[in-house]
What does this fold into?
Amino acid sequence: MSIVERADLKFADQYRWTALPDDDPKITGEPDGTLFNRKEGYEVLALINRFMTKYKFRQKTSGLKVERLIKEHLPIALKTQRHVEDWLVANWEEY
It folds into this structure.
């Protein structure tokens, strides 16, 4: 079950919402070396919810912080899901 839904996202209108298959590695499983598209809404939403589950966040405000960090602060050089997650963990307290 997702904590954050599409309707909750603050930047929802700025993403593309291209349907991905249910078994697409971009939206299933653990963050890995799979490329992350920060402009694709389904990928952002999946990453937010996986991050929240992994780190036991229960409030939508935490998910919206993840979205804001991705949208406004994530370095452009970070391209994989794993690198994005690592950056979020390392920078959580700074923002």
